[in-house]
Specification:
The structure is a single chain. By secondary structure, the protein is an alpha/beta fold. A seven-stranded mixed β-sheet has the order 3-2-1-4-5-6-7, with helices on both faces. The longest helix has 14 residues. About 30% of the residues are buried.
Length: about 180
């Protein structure tokens, strides 16, 4: 059975990327292979995680490329160069245009660490999301995966899981944190 080639788009620390790498190592991710890590930031720690796991990576910075069109052209070229079939947005802090997402129907999965809109928006990324959930008294925020569509608000929930936080356990000790 051939595995789907997956690109994981990141912008920061890469904790979701690490969870995917760990899932692959454990055998939980068996029908896909992470064939590329694409970062919008040259300083993202996720690039180091990719290098340690032997996964090719590329940086496509909208700021460095100067326009949305050039940014998405660079992304498209990287995806073509690596034969990518599925995109996972895992803490990717850049917005992709309707034109780009239309070319990847039902093949872009966005992973967000909690229910939207409860813990999202400016400043909500990485551990800050979980810290905000705990500060608000939530003990079981739901990780959310959505199939991304042409509209930022029209994403369809594809799967949800739950975990329970214990106030006595340091946040960084949770898997993937």
């Amino acid at each position: 059975m051939s595995r789907a080639k997956i690109a994981v788009f990141v912008s920061g620390g890469g904790t979701n990327l690490q969870a995917l790498i760990d899932a692959r190592k454990s055998g939980a991710l068996h029908s896909g292979e992470i064939a590329l890590v694409l970062s919008s930031s040259p300083n993202a720690y996720a690039l180091e995680r990719a290098a340690k796991a032997g996964i090719p990576s590329v940086v496509c910075s909208r700021k460095a490329l100067g326009s949305q069109e050039a940014f998405e052209a660079a992304i498209s070229q990287a995806l073509a160069d690596h034969g990518i079939q599925i995109i996972v947005l895992a803490g990717f802090m850049s917005i992709l245009s309707e034109d780009f997402t239309r070319r990847w129907p039902r093949r872009i999965l966005n992973v967000h660490p909690s229910l939207i809109p409860s813990f999202c928006g400016k400043g909500m990324y990485g551990l800050k999301v979980h810290e905000a959930a705990l500060a608000k008294g939530s003990r079981s925020p739901a990780p959310l995966s959505t199939l991304s569509t042409r509209s930022l608000t029209a994403a369809r929930s594809s799967c949800k899981g739950r975990w329970t936080f214990s106030p006595a356990t340091p946040l960084r000790s949770y898997k993937g944190a």
